[in-house]
Design goal:
This protein is α/β, with parallel strands linked by helices and about 400 residues long. The protein contains twelve helices and 15 strands. It folds into two domains: about 250 residues, Thiolase/Chalcone synthase (Peroxisomal Thiolase, Chain A, domain 1, 3-Layer(aba) Sandwich), CATH 3.40.47.10; about 150 residues, 3-Layer(aba) Sandwich (Peroxisomal Thiolase, Chain A, domain 1). Helix 1 packs across helix 12. The longest helix has 17 residues.
Length: about 400
């Protein structure tokens, strides 16, 4: 593949249970520090959900967003704007000069969209009998709002759109952004995922599925009880390697490939074959072999179905190499942020590549016999990391895997 078609990552930003900043997220994950806390919610006493990985109450959107446009934005979009601002600042790019804005796009994934705004207006409509809703309800709730508002805030006039594929949304968005750069349709794409889904209605819906843990998230552990919901955003600046090098940018890593597949089976039950297909495609797309991968950031939700299925898929793809891999689920610390998960996890991937440290799987007390890989239990591990696969497997049987390597 020519240098012009390779894709560099030159900026990253995050809003997470550890506050604003990719550095804060990475430091917490490296330390094995949990962001899962007792649920903060106005209707908490009516809910069975007891824990979540929530962005701290200290998050102030007014510090990141112009006061004139802030009323247009749901919490999901607020997170995306804050993360995008950090990523663009780190990249050092300026879009006003040289016509770059016309060659710069935005792709942001979200699994649910502006759910807190939707929930609030539904409460007014059905609970209070309101006959008129807030006039900005549509622009707050639409799933493309994060991408559109990032485009507007930074004057990015290239290909810009949203991606919705449940828990794989962020990885699908990053894959689409990579392909835009590869195809020459953009020189720069700001991409990632955002989610703020902890509304009363959504929490009740997750309760009904009976897949939520009541204490914490224990991926791959025999005593795991389910997933823990989270929220936040991760946003990255992708640009052609040629463009990044020509301006002397600091390159955080190379988005070398992506694999995408559909199980075409059950709407919720995961498929090892579908997951394996996406991983194998990511390796092939990146021109990597199983021997080149040192770390797999697992989807690792902590549910009875996901963890052994993902383990089987890794064995299927890596064969004899599977036993030497470091595998960890950072959802054990930052929770499952649905459409933002893959983006939060890419921060962990870039940290592992840059510092040679693999973040742990927290709360791994007693491995499930069906989960027989090296899950880096409870404490980070120093390990030279050349290349990583980052897995996202969504309800609906939609799989997206990123292959990232040192630049």
């Amino acid at each position: 593949m020519s240098a012009a078609r390779r894709v560099a990552i030159t900026g990253m930003g995050a809003v997470s249970p550890y506050g604003v900043g990719a550095a804060a997220l990475w430091q917490a994950l490296r330390e094995g520090r949990s962001g899962i806390r007792p649920l903060r919610h106005a209707n908490g006493e009516q809910l069975r959900v007891r824990v979540a990985a929530q962005v701290p109450e200290s998050f102030d959107p007014a510090q990141h967003i112009d006061a004139r446009t802030l009323p247009q934005m749901d919490r999901t979009t607020q997170f995306a704007l804050a993360a995008a601002g950090e990523a663009i600042a780190q990249s050092g790019l300026h879009f006003a000069a040289g016509g770059l804005a016309l060659r710069a796009g935005v792709v942001i994934g979200t699994g649910v969209g502006g759910e807190t705004s939707q929930d609030e207006q539904s409460r007014r409509l059905y609970g209070e009998g309101a006959t008129r809703l807030h006039p900005l309800t549509i622009v707050r709730t639409m799933a493309n709002a994060p991408a559109s508002q990032v485009s507007i805030a930074h004057g990015l006039r290239g290909p810009s759109f949203g991606v919705v594929s449940a828990c794989a949304s962020a990885n699908h968005a990053l894959a689409q952004a990579m392909m835009l750069v590869r195809a020459g349709l953009a020189d720069v794409v700001v991409a990632g995922g955002a989610e703020a889904c902890l509304s009363y209605g959504v929490l009740r819906a997750w309760e009904a599925m009976r897949v939520l843990a009541d204490d914490t998230c224990r991926p791959f552990s025999a005593d795991r009880r389910g997933l823990v919901l989270g929220e936040g955003a991760g946003v990255f600046v992708l640009e052609s390697m040629e463009h990044a090098r020509s301006r002397g940018a600091v390159i955080l890593g190379e988005l070398a490939g992506a694999g995408m597949s559909a199980d075409a089976g059950d709407i919720v039950a995961p498929s090892a074959d579908g997951a394996a297909a996406a991983m194998a495609q990511a390796l092939a797309d990146a021109g990597l072999s199983p021997q080149d991968i040192d770390y797999v950031n697992a989807h690792g939700t902590g549910t009875p179905a996901n963890d052994p299925t993902e383990t089987r898929a890794i064995h299927q793809v890596f064969g004899a190499q599977a036993g030497r891999l470091a595998v960890s689920s950072t959802k054990s610390m930052h929770g499952h942020a649905l459409g933002a998960s893959g983006a939060l996890e890419l921060v962990a991937v870039l940290g592992a590549l840059g510092e040679g440290v693999v973040p742990p799987t927290a709360n791994l007390d007693r491995p499930d016999p069906a989960c027989d890989l090296d899950y880096v239990p409870n404490a980070a591990r120093e390990l030279p990391v050349r290349a990583v696969l980052s897995n996202s497997f969504a309800f609906g049987g939609l799989n997206a895997v990123l292959a990232v390597r040192r630049a």
